[in-house]
Structures are given as structure tokens and as C-alpha cells.
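Researcher: I'm preparing a figure for a lab meeting and need a structural model of a single chain. I don't have an experimental structure, so a prediction will have to do for now. The sequence is pasted below. Please return the structure as C-alpha cells so I can convert it later.
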Amino acid sequence: MAIPYISIESALELVENQGAILLDCRWFLDGRDAHQIFLEGHIPGSRFLDMEVVGADLSVTGNGRHPLPSTHDFAQKLAELGITRDSTLVLYDSDSGTIAARIWWMTRRLSINTYIIAGGIQSYSGPLEAGEVDIERSVIDAGISRWEGSVTTDELINLISKDRTIVILDARNQDRYRGDFEPVDPRAGHIPGAYNLPTRSLMIDGINPAPLEGVKAILKEVVGEDVFTELVNNERQVVVSCGSGITACHLSMFVEEVTGREPILYNGSFSAWSTRYDLPVQIGGERGELPAE
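Model: Understood. Here is the structure written out cell by cell.
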């Protein structure tokens, strides 16, 4: 799989020549109002995609802070944005594409051609546009009944019990992985046995994805040469996790690029795991051991 990043120049050409749809996917962990920020200024012609409305269903309980919506509901939200299965989408955020990648992961399953702008909104040097954008609703059917390649907490526990060689990669920054602080979830730390591979470390200067050989070197350093060899030989299954299933989608694309096999997304991620007080949490830089059966 090719990493879906394109330059701002290529993105604008797609919009101009092929009618691609620009989607502003900005979202902020610190609670800033992304819609208000969109109204204050966005790349001209962009449509605002609310990550917590389109990319999640907050009415669902027990599966973390950003549970996946039903495939039907997701398709209907895309229709409200004027998107069809034949659309070409160009996504951007303000965080190296780590947020927009969640929508890429979802639209990919609907076979919608989707790209991410390298450098995000910061790469656009022209004047920003303020206010709302007129949108004509479309009609779209999801074409799928469930999110393949995603697991719940109980399903992850079941996977671990069946396969003790499973590799869990935690996409969060090191300080949250170690449990130095935890701004939003009930407990700090990480899933015991998980390796820490901050997905932002795979970006060069926060703009472009690292080249394949660079990604391989980083992954090898994180998991060790023996495990790395087994991963590229498809002898181990990979699960990607993060805080609430958003940035794990970004890490997913790099893991697939290296191994040729899409990893499983633990969508609830640490936000779901940490609410289960019957499950252990590891503090500090040591991985710890996968939870016992």
C-alpha cells in the first residue's frame, strides 16, 4: 500500500481538475472548538468534517472515547457532506495528518479514493476562507455492514489468549505511554506488553512521511530485530492502539507499508482499556508482559 500523502500543490490540482472534495478534519485533544476554528479560516472550498460526529458515535458506551459509528450512519454523514462512493477526497488537519488518518481508514473501507495533505493546513500559503460552505447533499450506501479489521476490548483479550505472539503497537507519545501524565483517561500508563511507537516519529519535520527504509529502521529499533523479521515475514499479527482509536489509524498505514499486511485496529484503545479496572495497566517505560489468560 502506498502512503496516501500528497503535496498541497497536488491536492489543489485534484480539486481544480477532478473536482476532488477538500475536508477539514481538524480536531484537538485539548478541547478547542474545531468548528469555530474552521469558521475563522480554512483552505478555500473546504467542508468541515466533525471528527466526533462523522468519525465517531459518542452515544456508544464501553468502547472508548471515540467509538466507531455504524457503517450506515457514517455513510449518511458523508452524504450530508455531498460525498459519494465516486468522490475523490483530500483530507487535512493541523497535526501532520495523524487526525485525518482516522477518516482515511474509514473511507478506505467504503472504497472511496482518499488522500491526506502533507503538512496539513500549515502547508497552504494562500489566504484562508472564513465562514460556512454551501453543500448539496448526496446519496451514498456504505456497501458494508461492519468495520472489518477492528476489535473491541473483549475481542482483543480473546486474541491475546489465543496468540501470545501478538504485537501491540501504541501510537501515543512517550510521556502518555509511560504514564507520566494522563489528560483525559481514567488511568495512566499502557496496555501491558505493548510496544511504544509514537506515530508522529514517522513524520519528517511534521510534514512528510519518512521513507520506507526509515520506517523499517524505526520499527526494528522498537520491537527488536527478531520480532521485526517475524513481522515482515507475516509470522506475527499486529494490533495498533493509541488513546481513542484516532492516531492508531495513522500508525496503521506505516505498519502495512512495511509488512504488506494491514494491522488490526483496537478502536477503543487505552481510553477503553483504562476504564476496565479488571484489566492491568503498566506504568513506566518497560513494556511489561501481555495480560495473562
